[in-house]
């Protein structure tokens, strides 16, 4: 154990974590040169395409600083976007050290601070490093100074590295070995996002097993599903030895399993004989029901043992209903969501039925990007197309004296007596030159309580805003106004009264439930008009003219008409038999009348999809 070092690389998005990890993989010869590719640890197709890390990625490296010295380095690369903060917090509980990386061309950004505070809370040894020094950034010395101030260390202790050229990497490796402590058998209290789980009740008979159980213990910090190996638990072993073929148990879930295989991350799964205390590795459980394995659970030899402090259940804040594009794909969609949940434990879902779109699932996400990523993974990894409702947040509404929670916009009352909406405290860290532009977002995003404060070479703008506004596209607005220099961190705070209202869209006088949204009062009219205009462009012409309307509080606030597509029923009658033509026109009119009464207007899923796009 003395020769093990477990650490994470943490940083704001795009500061070069995954690229630096590449250099570490090379320097330790973990990945052969011919297999090397940029951001090697971003193995998901979607990660590679978008150039972002979504999943934490553990990898084991062997490092020999000199002849006769050998260390095992377990690195966990982490995502930088705040939607995936839960991934980072779990990675922090599996390690003893952190490399806090700062892009020297950008300086400290919002997630640098958030990550720093979490790593500190977790009691990790933190190594500060500035990256991209190959670009010779003019402000490099300022950035080093800022980082040293944050870490309360000397600027000389801040490493200078380049993930591109590999400069500074040997020094970084030496520093990791020196400054990150070796693991101890019992990992201390996991105080990052950790909540003491209720102890699993243990009977008399089971208590005897405890002695042995105490010896064998591992925290599940992540998981994945494999068709052959079943559910695979990613673990940090805190005690005992785990071997293939032995009985094991998931304590909180109360499940037994026979371990199929144990191994390390290379980063591909590589089987080994046994996992020992301090190790980071995987345990293939053989369990075929993905729902049975829970992140934060403890693995031990028998059911009834003590559970390690797990993780707080992440709280989804953005809700979207997913419906299979093909009704017959419903069961596949369910299975796919279950499998995705194994590697994305923050994802939540429950059955949901829509009049138009049929059976689907109401899904909860940690943010807008999280939602987009899951929708894309369903298509790529499972070949499942879905039609999705508008991303929404939950509201507390009061009618008369009764309060209730509204998750789905269609359940929102027309005239509630009071509404509470989720709020966030937002921190924007920006270079002073963009401060004016940042403050101009105030009205559009309903920002309040704005306070500014200088922080190192930047300005910190703190404010409060409705979560619903944040998830619209605050992030994108911020990025584009500042060329990516202004950055964002946020946390949920208590709900507050909100001026919001239900906006409904009607086609041929019928409400289309999937298009109902909750919007800010002051934007309802504009949003309503935009919706019907877009709908008019998207909907195919129908047999008869159709009204498209937007309604707020029982009042129509916008109206458009799709013109009828006149089918020439008299075409075959050349010549001038006027009465005959009149007769046919009349008949056509009657037919349309009937159609109108039946009132069924087909909204093709394609139109939904277009409309629901951002
Ligand atoms: N010039 C230069 N570019 C870098 C360096 N490290 C990373 N990059 C680039 O910065 C971008 C983000 O890198 P990535 O490793 O994906 O960042 P992550 O989001 O922190 O994992 C990519 O385009 C990299 O090629 C570096 O040291 N020098
Ligand atoms: Mg990355």
Task: Describe what this molecule looks like in 3D.
It is a single chain. The chain is α+β, with helices and mostly antiparallel strands and 614 residues long. The protein has five domains: 179 residues, 3-Layer(aba) Sandwich (Rossmann fold); 86 residues, Elongation Factor Tu (Ef-tu), domain 3 (Beta Barrel); 74 residues, Alpha-Beta Plaits; 103 residues, Alpha-Beta Plaits (2-Layer Sandwich); 112 residues, 2-Layer Sandwich (Alpha-Beta Plaits), CATH 3.30.70.2570. Helices cover 27% and strands 31% of the residues. The protein has 14 helices and 31 strands. Strands 11-10-16-7-8-15-12-13 form an eight-stranded antiparallel sheet. It has a six-stranded mixed sheet with strand order 2-3-1-4-5-6, sandwiched between helices. A hairpin with a 3-residue loop joins strand 18 and strand 19. About 6% of the residues have low confidence. Bound molecules: guanosine-5'-diphosphate and magnesium ion. This is Elongation factor 4.
Brief digest:
The protein is 27% helix and 31% strand.
Question: Helices, strands, pairings?
Answer:
Blueprint: E1 4-10, H1 17-27, H2 45-50, E2 57-63, E3 71-77, H3 85-92, E4 97-103, H4 110-121, E5 125-131, H5 140-151, E6 159-160, H6 169-179, H7 204-215, E7 217-226, E8 230-239, E9 242-243, E10 247-250, E11 255-258, E12 261-265, E13 269-272, E14 274-275, E15 280-284, E16 298-300, E17 318-324, H8 330-343, E18 348-354, E19 358-365, H9 368-382, E20 386-388, E21 395-399, E22 402-406, E23 418-430, H10 435-439, E24 448-455, E25 458-466, H11 467-482, E26 487-497, E27 500-507, E28 510-511, E29 517-520, H12 524-538, E30 546-552, E31 555-562, H13 578-598, H14 605-612
Parallel strand pairs: 1-3, 1-4, 4-5, 5-6
Antiparallel strand pairs: 2-3, 7-8, 7-16, 8-15, 9-14, 10-11, 10-16, 12-13, 12-15, 17-19, 17-20, 18-19, 21-22, 21-23, 23-25, 23-26, 24-25, 27-28, 27-29, 27-30, 30-31
Helix pairs in contact: 8-9
The structure holds guanosine-5'-diphosphate and magnesium ion (MG).
